[in-house]
């Protein structure tokens, strides 16, 4: 009964978080824009494939796919730099409008039966312009989400949009192609891109965060700025592991794109329609994965679900190789689709929690570039593997990679969970401080990750007048007194903080603070404190007001903390 009650409580929490996403007007508009963008990607892919096939057969389709994808491996990290430096909503809006114009040009070229080479160039340009959308969106969501649960719920809704788009986009394009031409379909896709722009038009973007300091390396100048996302990934052990495992999954995804075709045609003898059946099974599993991802909302630990999703990506492929059959293949590929959705939701949420918002778009861009590269690598390696081992052995080898890798990495995955678990104590303390009450919940969560505990005994000096200020202190338990020589100026207790004047005004400590009782303090580093306070106008106003009042008291009594 207790387990059932917990399950019901979790279901209520998840449903409430999903309602919050729909109730947040900016997240709702962003989701509508994302859904339209997803439709653009899938519908245009189908229509372009038909144009390429009619012009040059299957080889032309393969060339088109490679040419469209390869530039994004390089351009996505560059897009992350743009999304960190300029307003994200404007970047996404501009991308949607430019893509609409390019798609209209492709439609015109197709209507006039112009050279395939021109259409490939335009399609590649449209794909390249679209590279900026995901980094900008990923970095924007934590700024407009109002709680950690809302952040995860938004990623679940995004996963649903992707899964439904993967099924609905090709289906809509296929139905339209029965009654019209690819050129008309692409023109309708251009209209969908404009609809995405209209949804983005009213999204309100918070004020940009200040330039990154030492706590968030950006690669200050020139080409090093482009590498900042890679630097963040390489310098963060948990993120490095997450990216490595995610890259292994996309390697298998690229391999499966080839294996599923060979499976349908040569092992299961389903013919060309069989390729669509197997792809449809994966897409249907992705939709089921959305339902499974709902249980992730509100979870403090997401690395374990990420690992389970990786196992679901590999083990079913292995089983198909061991005992191939149509029914088993359909069920197993549906499980792969389910695992894919869980992996995507967990990985993106972990990234958003772990990376400083000032370089988040670059980190996502770097990760996305790596993922696209490994997908291309997987597509290229599998034909060689099939030639060397045969199809069934290739399925077994490819399917075994992720489960084995995940089992070996499991202790380190659990460590990611321990490090990324939101510090409930720190959040509770920060929420009580008037100075931080205007901050969005995800920003508070990020600050709480940087808090360090300091226990002081009654009578112990915490800060001394004239010292260099490098920490801000929040009081969790106990009390402190503020003195200037023999004069007692103030007393602070739980729910209060001290030390902000030296940090904000860049001056030595203006008073001495001593523990009145045994006290538990939570300390915040200077750079993190200044970034949080100065990056949000309301919080900056509250800090200025607090500093002014304490400095006024200092003038009257000659000192305060």
Short structural summary:
The chain is 74% helix and 7% strand. The chain folds into three domains: 1-204, Growth Hormone, Chain: A (Up-down Bundle), CATH 1.20.1250; 236-421, MFS general substrate transporter like domains (Growth Hormone, Chain: A), CATH 1.20.1250.20; 424-557, Jelly Rolls.
E-strand count: 8
Query: What percent of residues are in strands?
Result: 5-15%
The overall pLDDT, averaged over residues, is: 78
Please, how many helices? 20
User: What's the overall geometry?
Assistant: elongated
CATH architecture of the largest domain: Up-down Bundle
CATH class of the largest domain: Mainly Alpha
Q: What structural category characterises the helix and strand content?
A: alpha+beta
- CATH homologous group name of the largest domain: MFS general substrate transporter like domains
Helix content: over 70%
């Amino acid at each position: 009964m207790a387990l059932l009650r917990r399950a019901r409580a979790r279901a209520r929490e998840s449903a409430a978080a999903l309602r919050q996403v729909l109730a947040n007007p900016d997240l709702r508009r962003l989701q509508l824009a994302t859904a339209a963008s997803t439709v653009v990607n899938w519908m245009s892919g189908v229509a372009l494939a038909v144009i390429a096939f009619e012009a040059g057969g299957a080889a032309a389709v393969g060339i088109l796919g490679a040419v469209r994808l390869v530039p994004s491996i390089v351009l996505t990290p560059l897009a992350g730099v743009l999304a960190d430096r300029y307003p994200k909503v404007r970047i996404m809006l501009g991308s949607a409008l430019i893509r609409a114009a390019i798609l209209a040009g492709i439609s015109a070229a197709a209507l006039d039966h112009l050279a395939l080479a021109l259409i490939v160039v335009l399609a590649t340009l449209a794909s390249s312009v679209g590279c900026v959308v995901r980094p900008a969106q990923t970095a924007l969501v934590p700024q407009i989400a109002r709680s950690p649960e809302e952040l995860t719920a938004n990623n679940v809704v995004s996963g649903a949009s992707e899964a439904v788009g993967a099924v609905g986009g090709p289906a809509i394009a296929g139905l339209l192609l029965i009654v019209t031409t690819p050129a008309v379909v692409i023109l309708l896709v251009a209209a969908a891109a404009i609809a995405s722009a209209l949804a983005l038009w009213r999204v309100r973007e918070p004020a940009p965060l200040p330039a990154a300091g030492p706590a968030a390396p950006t690669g200050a100048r020139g080409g090093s700025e482009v590498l900042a996302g890679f630097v963040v990934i390489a310098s963060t052990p948990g993120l490095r592991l997450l990216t490595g495992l995610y890259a292994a999954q996309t390697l298998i995804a690229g391999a499966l794109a080839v294996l599923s075709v060979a499976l349908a045609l040569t092992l299961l003898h389903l013919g060309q329609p069989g390729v669509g059946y197997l792809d449809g099974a994966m897409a249907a599993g992705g939709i089921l994965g959305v339902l499974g991802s709902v249980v992730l909302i509100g979870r403090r630990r997401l690395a374990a679900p990420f690992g389970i999703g990786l196992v679901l990506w590999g083990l079913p492929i292995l089983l198909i190789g061991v005992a191939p059959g149509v029914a088993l293949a359909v069920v197993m590929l549906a499980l792969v689709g389910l695992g894919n959705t869980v992996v995507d939701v967990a990985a993106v949420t972990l990234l958003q929690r772990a990376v400083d918002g000032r370089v988040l778009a670059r980190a996502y861009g770097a990760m996305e570039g790596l993922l696209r590269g490994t997908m291309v690598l997987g597509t290229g390696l599998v034909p060689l593997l099939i030639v060397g081992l045969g199809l069934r052995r290739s399925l077994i080898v490819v399917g075994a990679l992720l489960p084995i890798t995940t089992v070996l990495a499991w202790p380190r995955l659990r460590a990611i969970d321990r490090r990324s678990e939101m510090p409930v104590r720190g959040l509770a303390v920060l929420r009580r401080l008037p100075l931080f009450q205007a901050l969005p919940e995800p920003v508070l969560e990020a600050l709480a990750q940087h808090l360090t505990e300091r226990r002081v005994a009654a009578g112990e000096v915490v800060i001394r007048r004239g010292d260099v200020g490098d920490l801000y202190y929040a009081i969790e338990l106990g009390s402190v007194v503020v003195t200037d020589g023999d004069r007692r100026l103030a007393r602070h207790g739980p729910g209060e903080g001290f030390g902000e004047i030296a940090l904000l005004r860049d001056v030595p400590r203006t008073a001495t603070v001593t523990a009145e009782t045994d006290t538990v303090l939570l300390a915040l580093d200077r750079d993190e404190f200044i970034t949080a306070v100065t990056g949000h106008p309301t919080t900056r106003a509250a800090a200025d007001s607090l500093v002014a009042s304490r400095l006024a008291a200092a003038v009257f009594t000659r000192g305060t903390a």
